[in-house]
Write a structure and sequence with these properties.
Helix 9 (184-200) runs antiparallel to helix 10 (204-220) and helix 23 packs antiparallel against helix 25 (616-626). This protein is 70% helix and 7% strand. The chain contains 25 helices and seven strands. The strands form two sheets. The chain has a five-stranded mixed β-sheet. Strands 1-3 form a two-stranded antiparallel sheet. It has 650 residues and is α+β, with helices and mostly antiparallel strands. The two termini are 40 Å apart. Among the domains are: 272-338, Serine Threonine Protein Phosphatase 5, Tetratricopeptide repeat, CATH 1.25.40; 385-482, no CATH class; 495-648, Histidine kinase-like ATPase, C-terminal domain (Heat Shock Protein 90, 2-Layer Sandwich). Strand 6 and strand 7 (641-648) form a beta hairpin. The longest helix is centred in the middle third of the chain and has 50 residues, at 386-435.
C-alpha cells in the first residue's frame, strides 16, 4: 500500500492551555476600547490576549450588533486554537443572532465557521449543506472575498472525498476572483490548493511549481505559518519523486515553523510525512518514532481523520523489517479505522447536494432572466392605451387593499407575540435574579481579589482555586444563557421541528463528546452503549438538545468517580427508548412527582454546588411533546437515576 496524503489547511488548528491574565485597567475601559484592543491582539496574533478582552467586552452591556461581531471573532479564534467545541458554540450563537436580526453578511460568516468545523471533524454532508448556503448569501451580497474563502472550503470537501474535477473548477474560480481583486493572500492560497489538486493527480513537478509560487508570495508578505505549510507540501511531493534527503530539509523547515506557532494539525502532517521519508530511507526505527509522534498529537488535538492511514503506513514499515506480528496488529487497526461503505454513502449524499445546488443556481438564473423580460414587456404595456392604464390603476387599488390587510394581520400577530413575550418575561425574572446574578457576583468578587490593586498577596494554590471557581461560575452562566435562548424561542415563536431519521448512537456520541471535559473535571465516566442499528424519527436538533440537557443534569447530580451510561432499545414496533442512567444522588418520590407533574421553573444545586437554570427539564418535556414522545423517570435516593426517553421509531 502506498499512501496518498496531503495537508489541506484553510485556518489554523492548534490547542493551548494558559492561565488567564488580568489586564491592569481593563475592567475600567469602555466597551469600544476593549473591542479595539482585542482586535489589535488578534492581528498580532496574540490569541490569548484577544480572547480575554473579547470575553470581558461581552460583560459590559454592549449592544446586540457588537455582541454578534465578538461571537464571530471568538468562534474564529477558538477554531484557530483547535478548540472546535467552543468555536461551534460561538458560531451557533452568532447564527441564531444573525437570523434574528436579519443580517445576511454575519449569517454567511457564521455558516462558514460551522461548515469548516464540521468538515474538519469529518461531517462532510452537513458541512456541504451549510457552506453552499453561505456561498449563496455571499453571492447575493456580491461579497467576493467571502465567496473565495467559502468556495475554497467547498472545494476542500470535494477533494477530500476524491471529487477532483469539481474541486478543480472551484479552485480555478477562486483564483480568478482573487486575481481580479489583486488579493495577494487569496492568490497564494489558490496556488497552494491547486498544488494540492495536482498532487492528487500525481503530477508532482507541477504541484511543486504551484507550491513554490505560493511560498514566494507568503515569504514576501512575511506570513510565517503559511510558508511553513508550503515547505511541508513541497516535501511531500519530493517524497513521491524519491528525493528523500531534499524532502527532509523542507520538512525540518516546516517543523520549525509549526512548533513556533504551536500548530498541532501541521505537526501531525509533518511527523507522519517524516515517518514515511525515514521508512523509504530504510531507517525504520526513526520512521516508527515519527509515526508515533503523529498519533500522539492526533489524540491531543482530537483530529483523527488520518489515523487509519498512519496505521497502514506503520504496518508497511514493520512488514519491511519482517516483523510480521507487529505489521498484522497495525493492519488490523488500519482496517478497523477505515469504513469504505460509510465513505461511499457520504460521497453519494455530497453529489446529491451538489446537484441540487447546481439546479437551484440554474433556476435562479432563469428566474432573473424571466424577470428582466417581464420588466421590458411591462414598459411596453404602459405606453399602449388608456384602458391598460385603467387596469393598472385598478391593480394598484387591489394591491393597496392587500397591503392594508397584510399589515392588519401582521399587527394582530405582533400583539399576540408581545403578549407571549410579557408572560415569558414574568416567568424569567424570578430565576434570573438568583441563577444569573449569583454566579456573576462570584465572578466579579473573584476578579476583584485577583486584581493587582486588590492588596491581597495570594498563593499560587489560592489563585488556582479562585480561577477554577470563576470557570465554574462562568460555565453555569453560559448554560443558563443557552437554556434561556432555546426556551424563549420555543415559548414565543415555536421551535421549527423537522423530523427525519436519527441515528441515536451517532447523536448520543456527538453530544457526549461535548461534555467530555466537564465530566473529566469531576472524574465521571460517560459510556455510550446505544446499539448501532437503533434509529428514531424526530428532529435531530431537538434530540441533541434533550440528550445534552440530560447529560448535563447527570453530571451535575453525580458525585466524583461516578458513571453515566447511555443505552437504547426497541420498546414496541412503533417506539424506541433511550436510557440516560447515572450513579448519582437520586431523588425522592416527592421530588419525582414535583418534576413530572409541574411545568414551572425549578433549580437545585449540584453535588459540587453547581448552579442550574431550571429550564433544562422543561425544554426536554416541551421538545418531547413536539416529537410525539414521552418521558419517564426512575430514581431512588443514593441509588442513581434512570431517565427513559420514548421516541417514534424510524
Amino acid at each position: 500500500m502506498k499512501a496518498t496524503y496531503i495537508i489541506v489547511l484553510l485556518c489554523l488548528f492548534f490547542s493551548i492551555s494558559c492561565p488567564i491574565r488580568v489586564f491592569a485597567g481593563a475592567t475600567t475601559d469602555q466597551p469600544g476600547t476593549l473591542i479595539t484592543r482585542a482586535d489589535s491582539c488578534a492581528k498580532v496574533p496574540d490569541f490569548q490576549c484577544a480572547l480575554e478582552l473579547y470575553e470581558l467586552a461581552l460583560t459590559t452591556g454592549i449592544d446586540s450588533s457588537d455582541s454578534l461581531t465578538i461571537r464571530l471573532a471568538l468562534g474564529d479564534i477558538r477554531y484557530q486554537l483547535g478548540q472546535f467545541d467552543l468555536a461551534f458554540v460561538q458560531f451557533d450563537s452568532a447564527l441564531l443572532m444573525a437570523e434574528k436580526m436579519g443580517l445576511d453578511y454575519e449569517k454567511a460568516l457564521a455558516l462558514k465557521g460551522l461548515a469548516h468545523i464540521l468538515w474538519r471533524t469529518g461531517e462532510n454532508v452537513r458541512a456541504t449543506t451549510l457552506i453552499i448556503e453561505s456561498i449563496e448569501l455571499s453571492r447575493k451580497q456580491q461579497d467576493t472575498a467571502a465567496m473565495i474563502t467559502s468556495s475554497n472550503i467547498l472545494a476542500g470537501i470535494y477533494m477530500s472525498v476524491g471529487n477532483l474535477d469539481d474541486a478543480g473548477k472551484l479552485y480555478q474560480e477562486a483564483l480568478g476572483m482573487a486575481l481580479g481583486m489583486q488579493d495577494s493572500l487569496n492568490i497564494a492560497q489558490a496556488y497552494e490548493y491547486l498544488g494540492v489538486l495536482e498532487f492528487f493527480r500525481e503530477d508532482y513537478y507541477r504541484a511543486i511549481d504551484l507550491y513554490e509560487q505560493a511560498l514566494q508570495i507568503n515569504l514576501g508578505m512575511d506570513r510565517g505559518l503559511e510558508s511553513g505549510i508550503n515547505y511541508s507540501n513541497i516535501a511531500e511531493s519530493l517524497n513521491k519523486l524519491g528525493e528523500y534527503r531534499e524532502a527532509l530539509k523542507y520538512l525540518k523547515k516546516g517543523e520549525k515553523v509549526m512548533k513556533r506557532y504551536d500548530f498541532l494539525s501541521g505537526l501531525i502532517f509533518v511527523y507522519y510525512t517524516m515517518g514515511d521519508t525515514y521508512t523509504q530511507l530504510k531507517q525504520y526505527d526513526l520512521g516508527i518514532a515519527f509515526y508515533q509522534k503523529s498519533l500522539e498529537l492526533m489524540e491531543l488535538s482530537g483530529e483523527t481523520r488520518e489515523k487509519q492511514m498512519v496505521y497502514g503506513l506503520m504496518a508497511e514499515n514493520y512488514a519491511a523489517q519482517n516483523k510480521f506480528e507487529e505489521a498484522f496488529i497495525y493492519h488490523k487497526r488500519h482496517a478497523a479505522a477505515k469504513d469504505s461503505l460509510f465513505n461511499i454513502t457520504k460521497n453519494n449524499q455530497l453529489e446529491e447536494i451538489r446537484a441540487k445546488y447546481d439546479l437551484e443556481k440554474k433556476e435562479q438564473e432563469n428566474f432573473f432572466l424571466a424577470k428582466e423580460n417581464e420588466a421590458k414587456e411591462e414598459q411596453l404595456a404602459i405606453k399602449q392605451s388608456t384602458i391598460r392604464k385603467q387596469y393598472i390603476m385598478g391593480g394598484l387599488l387591489v394591491l393597496l387593499l392587500l397591503i392594508a390587510i397584510y399589515l392588519s394581520v401582521k399587527l394582530y400577530r405582533n400583539k399576540l407575540l408581545l403578549s407571549r413575550a410579557n408572560k415569558t418575561k414574568d416567568k424569567m425574572f424570578g430565576f434570573i435574579a438568583h441563577d444569573l446574578i449569583s454566579p456573576m457576583g462570584i465572578i466579579k468578587s473573584l476578579a476583584d481579589l485577583l486584581s493587582p490593586d486588590s492588596g491581597f498577596d495570594l498563593t499560587k494554590q489560592e489563585r488556582d482555586n479562585m480561577m477554577r471557581d470563576m470557570h465554574n461560575s462562568a460555565s453555569s452562566v453560559l448554560i443558563l444563557l443557552k437554556d434561556v435562548l432555546l426556551w424563549s424561542i420555543a415559548q414565543q415563536h415555536g421551535y421549527d421541528f423537522k423530523p427525519k431519521e436519527v441515528n441515536l448512537r451517532e447523536v448520543s456520541q456527538k453530544n457526549a463528546d461535548l461534555y467530555h471535559l466537564h465530566a473529566k473535571s469531576k472524574e465521571i465516566a460517560i459510556r455510550n452503549e446505544v446499539p448501532e442499528g437503533i434509529r428514531a424519527f424526530a428532529d435531530v436538533k431537538a434530540v441533541s438538545t434533550i440528550i445534552r440537557n440530560l447529560i448535563s443534569n447527570a453530571i451535575k447530580f453525580t458525585e466524583k468517580g461516578g458513571t453515566i451510561t447511555l443505552s437504547a432499545a426497541l420498546d414496541d414496533p412503533s417506539m424506541v427508548v433511550l436510557y440516560v442512567s447515572d450513579t448519582g444522588i437520586g431523588m425522592t418520590s416527592s421530588q419525582l412527582e414535583l418534576i413530572l407533574s409541574r411545568n414551572e421553573l425549578n433549580t437545585q444545586k449540584g453535588t459540587e454546588d453547581e448552579h442550574g437554570s431550571g429550564l433544562g427539564l422543561n425544554l426536554v418535556k416541551d421538545f418531547l411533546k413536539e416529537c410525539k414522545g414521552r418521558l419517564n423517570i426512575k430514581s431512588e435516593p443514593n441509588q442513581g437515576t434512570t431517565i427513559e426517553i420514548y421516541l417514534p421509531k424510524a
